[in-house]
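>> Question from a student workshop board

For tomorrow's exercise we were told to take the sequence and the ligand below, predict the bound structure, and bring the output to class. My setup keeps failing. Could a helper post the expected result so I can at least see what it should look like? The ligand is magnesium ion.
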Amino acid sequence: MTTTTDTTGTFERLYGHAPEGVWAAPGRVNLIGEHTDYNDGFVLPIALPQSVRAQVRRRADGVLRLSSTRVPGEVVELDVAALAPGGVSGWAAYPAAVVWTLRQAGHPVGGADVLLDSDVPGGAGLSSSAALECAVAIAYNDLHGLGLDAPGLALLAQRAENEFVGVPCGIMDQMASMTCRAGAALHLDARDLSARHVPLDLAGADLALLVIDTRVQHDLADGAYAALRAGCERAAELLGLPALRDLAAADLPAALDRLPAELVPLVRHVVTENGRVEQAVAELERRGPAALGPILTAGHASLRDDYRTSCPETDLAVATAVAAGALGARMTGGGFGGSVIALVETAVADTVVKAVTGASAFAGHAEPRVYRAVPSEGARRLS
Ligand code: ADP
Ligand code: MG
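>> Workshop helper replied:
Here is what the output should look like for this input. Compare the format with yours to find the bug.
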């Protein structure tokens, strides 16, 4: 999917001059490793072909003007020197956050005219927020010659979302958007950001990865995310560990005996999920992408039964996809709605899409939007 908006013309009409350049940063889907990044664990995302594009021109007067083709006609004007967490509401908080964080980190950056254009669906668990932050971050990095590397920019974008927007996200989304490569999944250690690009040739194995956006997002998402994160931190503290990543699978049963009942399923999910990431990478390299199927479905069961971040719409999409012949399926992203991924043989892709669409209609759910995910490249300058 690509948008056909004439955005260069839009930039000139809005701001009266041409942009200095265009930068793009993609959304992502995570194959496996959900809610593990903020536990210092492992994840395995791919970047999507869909991206946020940022056209940017520096300004010398300290004014930051922000516009998005998603919000036609609105230009948000901010004084860069007066930016403060909580001071900008709505979508403009995300790009403003990046500029604020760069300045907090001591980089001498000022205002700009910015126009955003995107085909990453927002709020669908595909990380449009990180894509937006990363597009603005690389634009500023290039225009001001800051020389920050990709992990440095990802950390900066995460800090922007954490401290300025107020969302306590982990590092996966920004690292995926900044550093993924076409034709590969990113095996990332969220503790030290060491990463390896694991080749993932879906088409060569006659497979397709469907992204099924359920188009629902339940209200409890924000509060529940913070509560789950706090629960994990408490469990690690009670076990005397720096993070749940430090709990080995072999020590899990004994550890669970020492924890209060409400923390048991959380810890079980995180430890088994880290195991599934390692298993997925090993299977991918040994037997190829089809072997990921059962690991995806097991990951979903853990999210549904232990971590409790799934919901009726995602559970139905997963169960229907698997019953219709998918090799495996799971909810991806933070949860309480959002998107499901299903790994299918290309020949049965249409059957699976029809089954999932039919089942959601029968249940009275919103009609899902379905994309085919191809592992794509990370953030880059387009022109
Ligand atoms: P996700 O990251 O899963 O898409 P989030 O809730 O974290 O969901 O981020 C979505 C928010 O990001 C939107 O509500 C909006 O504020 C902002 N956003 C994403 N894409 C755009 C865009 N193209 N233009 C303006 N704001 C955007
Ligand atoms: Mg987000």
